[in-house]
Amino acid sequence: MKQSRFTVFVKDLSTRFKNEVRGGSLHVTASIVLCLSIASTMVILGMFINDHVKKYLALSENPYSYSLCNSSLSSPSLPPLIQFPITSGSFSDWISPKEVWHSMNDKELLWRASMVPHIDEYPYNRTPKVAFLFLTRGRLPLAQLWEKFFKGHEGLYSIYVHTSPEFTEVPPESSVFYNRRIPSKPVEWGRATMVDAERRLLANALLDFSNERFVLLSETCIPILNFTTIYKYLINSKQSFIGSFDDPRHNGRGRYNKLLWPTVNLSDWRKGSQWFELDRKLAGKMVSDVKYYPVFREHCKPPCYMDEHYLPTLVTKIWPELNSNRSITWVDWSAGGPHPARFLRKDVSENFLNRIRNGINCTYNGSITKVCFLFARKFHPSTLEPLLRIAPALLGFNS
Ligand SMILES: *[C@@H]1O[C@H](CO)[C@@H](O)[C@H](O)[C@H]1NC(C)=O
Ligand SMILES: *[C@@H]1O[C@H](CO)[C@@H](O)[C@H](O)[C@H]1NC(C)=O
Ligand SMILES: *[C@@H]1O[C@H](CO)[C@@H](O)[C@H](O)[C@H]1NC(C)=O
Ligand SMILES: *[C@@H]1O[C@H](CO)[C@@H](O)[C@H](O)[C@H]1NC(C)=O
Ligand SMILES: *[C@@H]1O[C@H](CO)[C@@H](O)[C@H](O)[C@H]1NC(C)=O
Ligand SMILES: *[C@@H]1O[C@H](CO)[C@@H](O)[C@H](O)[C@H]1NC(C)=O
């Protein structure tokens, strides 16, 4: 288009030149041609510089500027350089987004979260953080306990909350949960949508490069040790804490679907609690798994519960040495049935919490310890009052 217009222009100019020569006004025409050629050289040079500056900016700015750059370049008339978003996004925004809300869909989010740096050393002073991922329907009834738990430890944790999409209540601005809700979708118990929500939480948390450990929690979970102890326990562990075992009974092997073969065979089949704790390596594997996830989604439907089998089996297949095979979230299955015991106000006492904390022996980093559980469930909202009463002494909260 531009080229042909230019040709027309040149032809036009030469015709006029011939006419002018015949008319004898050669001198005036020569000056006009000279001026025009200087002007056009400047325009072309300007466009060239403009283009290079744009390319340079597109490479040095945050990834969002690619699409902005693309759309501005593809529009027929170039907008003035001043409109280009030079100031949007600095390095610190890129390694740790300030806002957890965004407009990415799941596919875009998982893809972005699957990116792993290939330079081991961080170009900034990185303090590893623990990401607390709350998977809840609505309000967190025990939020007040968590507020006390987190108090004074800013910079060592991040919080992400996945709720029902219709839940729109906003916590007070002073709360640690303020503005920590991620774009959420409906979740059905025992279905693939549950695992989708877990992956969504993980993916959002992976966008912050300082998050090193990732704990999944529900609205009925409580911490049973103080923040410092939990932080050190997780950050210094060489393994993740995903309950994973081979259950030979009907509720374990009985849920294996032959259609999972050959991707997953019965000897790989594992069961475990959905309430995981993952390190960054495994979190990255879970969000970027395109091999096992679709097969489970297709062939592990109730009475096969994907949230109890997918991750325990995945980690056994891809990186078993990274898992301790035990959960750090205590729960009471002793009564049997499809759901674990739920504790009410009358159940909560210092004795009860101490029994949970010191009940068993387990291995941590290869040696035996009594500290096996960091969290416990399921606590009814009515337990908040006794918990707040006991917590300062038990958990060393500075109330
Ligand atoms: C870039 O622009 C082209 C042409 O308008 C369009 O087809 C393409 O989808 C755009 N890409 C992005 C990432 O916006
Ligand atoms: C656990 O093992 C890792 C790797 O060997 C080590 O860096 C870490 O300090 C150990 N943690 C504790 C509490 O001993
Ligand atoms: C199941 O898979 C494991 C490893 O992936 C393999 O060693 C084993 O032979 C397989 N068993 C069957 C019955 O295919
Ligand atoms: C966890 O289970 C896997 C697979 O069964 C096994 O390879 C691994 O050694 C176990 N890890 C520990 C700490 O026992
Ligand atoms: C835990 O181990 C200690 C010794 O290391 C032992 O005395 C105690 O009985 C064990 N507790 C349980 C519940 O097995
Ligand atoms: C946290 O718990 C540990 C272990 O129980 C204890 O040594 C420490 O003093 C506690 N910290 C606070 C601030 O209470």
UniProtKB/TrEMBL annotation:
It is a single-pass type II membrane protein. It is found in: Membrane. Keywords: Glycoprotein, Glycosyltransferase, Membrane, Transferase, Transmembrane, Transmembrane helix. The keyword Zinc-finger does not apply. Pfam families: Branch. The chain crosses the membrane at residues 26-49. Coiled coil: none annotated. Its main location: membrane. It comes from the Eukaryota. This is Uncharacterized protein. It comes from Hevea brasiliensis (Para rubber tree).
